[in-house]
Design a protein that fits this description.
α1 crosses α3 (61-80), α3 packs across α5 and α3 (61-80) runs parallel beside α6 (127-147). This protein has helices at 18-32, 40-47, 61-80, 90-107, 109-116, 127-147, 154-162; strands spanning 2-3, 6-7. It has 7 helices and 2 strands, in the order ββααααααα.
Length: 163
């Protein structure tokens, strides 16, 4: 069976998985510069199946987007912590972290917009996403506090990190 120019399998879709839907969503989000112009039909076309197949893996389109958001946060976290191995002096650790922080939106503008400024329904944020974002925020605050000048109040350094 065909829909428009896209071929859609008529039997059970082979090789489908939640990960394929998330991968396709993130690819489109990266290509479109955020999630605003990405929809379920485009994601399903990318995967090569009918849009209804997503419901075999997610309860709703919003659940698929939250799964993509989780993965985008993981990609962001990996980028932020890149090249931070070993025992770096605190100031160098902060400098590398800030360089990573600055380069992520340059290298991944669509994902950055998706996790940083695309509109989301605040009432539907899953608890694990809140916990992940909070942990990332605390990690960054600790990096800033560790690199602060001697005698700096750690609470002040953490407030500076919030900016």
């Amino acid at each position: 069976m065909t829909t428009g120019n896209a071929s859609v399998p008529s039997g059970p879709a082979k090789g489908l998985s939640a990960d394929r839907f998330v991968d396709a969503a993130l690819e489109l989000i990266a290509e479109e510069g955020g999630s605003l112009d990405v929809n379920l039909r485009a994601i399903s076309r990318r995967v090569g199946c009918a849009h209804t197949n997503v419901y075999n893996y997610f309860d709703s389109y919003a659940d698929l987007l939250w799964a993509a958001f989780r993965r985008a946060l993981h990609i962001y976290d990996d980028h932020l912590t890149h090249d931070l191995g070993g025992e770096l002096p605190p100031r160098e650790h902060l400098q590398r972290t800030l360089a990573n922080l600055a380069s992520f939106p340059q290298q991944n503008p669509g994902l950055y917009r998706f996790i940083g400024s695309d509109p989301i329904d605040l009432e539907t944020i899953p608890e694990d996403v809140i916990e992940t974002v909070t942990a990332m925020k605390h990690w960054f605050a600790d990096v800033v506090a560790a690199a602060a000048a001697p005698g700096t109040d750690p609470a002040e350094a953490r407030r500076a990190a919030d900016i």
